[in-house]
User: Fold ECF-type sigma factor from Luteimonas endophytica.
Amino acid sequence: MDQDLTRLLHDWRAGDEASRDRLLAEVYDTLRGMAAQRLGRGRAGHTLQPTAVVNEALLRMLGTEVDWQDRAHFFALAALKMRAVLVDHARARAAEKRGGDVAMLTLSHAEREGADAVEVDVLALHQALERLAARDERAARGLEMAYFGGMRHEEIACVQGVSVPTVERDLRFARAWLSRQLA
Assistant:
């Protein structure tokens, strides 16, 4: 599957639109699941739906000239674009309501680590990630890929060009740092 997606990515970048269509069909449900996890399933009153997040993220990705390396690289970029969509939506809502009705985001590793889901303000998370990136860029990007992309440690290591133990150390640091910032 990973090799098929990587081949589709390369074929798409070479101009094969049929490969692009097959690729999007293959990854759409995975991307939608990533978005649903971050938004929190079934939350009453939430105006942004997982499908809208994925569609907007894909539109932003289709307009970029990226030389896809592999499946992990694709999902890392998708995670970044989904984060941007969520932040833009939260900013728009905050501007409409003058700070009221702040958008919340489910931040959870429950599927991998047995932790409880925690809801945080999207803008507060964005600002905290920006501060973390100023302090430790690699840890911030790794955390972003884990939270927004649902990527495994091995995939993050591949994208960042570091070892899995380095990713694990970075994520432990980033989670602890983020917890203090959002407390």
